[in-house]
Each structure stands twice: as C-alpha cells, then as structure tokens.
Amino acid sequence: MPQASGSRHSIGYVPEVTFGTTPATPAFKKLRHNSSTINLSKASFQSAELRADRMIADFRHGTRFAEGNVVGELSRTSYDDMLEAALGGTWTANVLKAGTTRKSFTFERFFADITQYFRYTGVSVDTLQVTMNTGGVVGLTFGYWGKNVAVSATPIAGATYPLAPTTAPMDALTGVINEGGSVIAVVTAVTLNLANGLAPRFVIGSSESLEPSIGRSNLTGTVDAYFETTTLYNKFVNETSSSLSVIASDGVDTFTFLVPKLKYSGGDVPVSGEGPVSMSMPFQGLYDPTEQTNLKITRTAA
Questions:
Q1: What is the 3-state secondary structure (H, E, C) of 203-270?
Q2: How many Cβ atoms are within 10 Å of 99's Cβ, its own excluded?
Q3: Which end of the chain is more exposed for a tag (fewer CB within 10 A), N or C?
Q4: Percentage of the chain exceeding pLDDT 90
C-alpha cells in the first residue's frame, strides 16, 4: 500500500466570491511552498458526570476551524495574490499598500501518491513574515485561518490546474538596504511581521465560524546589524522616527519592501565572546501620512 510523501504534495488555491464557498469549475493556481502545516483544529469537551466507577462518560467535539502556515521563497509572480490578501490591498501599477479589502480562498492540498484531496474553505491570510539574511533566499511564511475542511479521493468536476510559476527565488544579497533614507552596509538580517488579528465568530446552531473578525494591521520587525556606531541605537534611545527599505532581487526582477515610518522598540547589544558584536533592533511600523500605509511593496512590472 502506498504512503504519502512530501515530494508528491501540492497546494492549489482559488479565490472565493462568497466566503466559504468554492466556485464552480474552479481554476486552481498552484501555491509554491517548501512546507505546510495547515490542518483542522477542533475544540473538545468532556462530560462532567460523576460515576461510582470513576470513568468519563463521554467526550464530544465542538467548534472547528483550520489553521497553519505555508512557507515559501519569494519569487516574481508566485505570491502576488497572497501578498494582496495579507496586506488587504490591491496591486496598482505594481505597487501594493495595506488596506481594508477582505479576500478568502479555497485551498486544496493534494497528496498525489495516495490520491487524496484536503479542501479548506474560507481560507484567509492572518499573518505574514518576511525574512532576509545573508544565508539564503528571502523567505515568506503565510499564516492562514480557514472555516472548514473536507476530504475527497476525486477532483472537483471541471477543476483545472495550471502549472506553477518557475521564476527564480530572490535574495537580499544583490539588493539594497536603506535605513532612514541612507544606505546601510552593516545590516545582517531584516525580519518583517504583519499580523491581521483574525478571530473566529461562532454562533449557536453551527460548529463552523462566520467570516472571522479582523483587527488592525500590526506591522513589527527586527533589524540586525554589526555594531559600528551608535546612530541606530540612539534612534531607540531618543524615540526617533525612521524608515526602512529593503530590495530583494533575483538578478533581474526586484521586490522593494518599504516601511515608511517606524520607531525602534528596543536595542540589544550583547557580547558573548571575542567575535564581532551585533545589535538587534526591534521596531513597530506606523501609519505614514505621505505613503498612506504602514507597508508598501513595489514589484518589477509583471
């Protein structure tokens, strides 16, 4: 009997017109990924009945929802839909800013070696993490929330599955990092974290949630740099507003991530040995009245 192997795993997605409803004859796009932890979660409860034999009388399942991450590598055209959903915006002239537009998808995980489909409806992007360092490609981690899951051994009637993009992954080694409008050559890592604060809304009469509520667009991050001057550190000490711009590139195409306004919330300068001293500077992204966003992404023309 065959068993499922990660090498045969794929993820397809299609935008939903109505939250939680898969479109008829869906045209699934392939979601490139390195790993996935999306799974069904259920609340549970057990009977409180007291018995002379000390046994538990019953155990029940309660409300349900899907959650988990998809990890991938930034590349041209591969994640444009997911970045839109994460920021709540729309690509306009190859620029994406944070906004209030809600988007949901039907996800389909396919285990080809055992011919099983896991279909998740009402999938929304709750979190986004972008990681850039000197050790590899730019990493993306999308945190998802979904309404429910169904398992099937057959594809949806009329469903189509175009091939996934094959664009090259991007790195930050060939890009540029600007802090406060000036090029900084000593940065070793940048992490961006965007949280949308999705929360389920359960009601009597159903184990499934309504479309989840959404919180504020909360952008945080960290800049790691070699300790050469106190310029960055003094921005934390003096509560000085700054900005951050990082360009990722595959050698031809680029993505520019701009945090137009931020304040550093810490400054850690540990010494653990005789080697180089690095400092870690966490920050809070803020609304910038000029750019009218807390995060702006600019891509090479599609």
A1: CCCCCECEEEECCCCEEEEEEEEECCCCHHHHHHHCCCCEEEEEEEECCCCEEEEEEEEEEECCCECC
A2: 14
A3: N
A4: 77
The answer to whether 221 and 283 are in contact (CB under 8 A) is yes
Tell me the helices (H) and strands (E) count for the chain, helix number first: 2, 20
Over 90: is that where the pLDDT of 119 sits?
A: yes
Confidence of residue 176 (pLDDT cuts 50, 70, 90): low
Could you say which DSSP state residue 157 is in? T
User: By C-alpha distance, which of 71, 3, 4, 64 is closest to 39?
Assistant: 64
Question: Is the CA virtual torsion 289, 294, 298, 302 positive or negative?
Answer: negative
Tell me, what DSSP letter sits at residue 8? G
**What is the mean predicted confidence (pLDDT) over 83-91?**
98
Confidence grade of residue 186 (pLDDT, cut at 50, 70, 90): confident
Please count the CA atoms within 13 angstroms of the CA of 294 that sit on its side-chain side: 23
> CA 72 → CA 7, 75, 92, 214, distances in Å?
15, 9, 24, 24
| Cα distance between residue 84 and residue 278, in whole Å | 34
Task: Determine the Cα–Cα distance for residues 33 and 70; give it in Å rounded to an integer.
Answer: 6
Task: Report d(CA 147, CA 124) in Å as an integer.
Answer: 9
Asked whether the CA dihedral 121, 128, 141, 160 is positive or negative, the reply is: positive
Residue % of the chain over a pLDDT of 70:
98
Q: How far is CA 47 from the centre of its chain?
A: 38
CA angle, residues 129, 135, 139, in degrees to nearest 5: 20
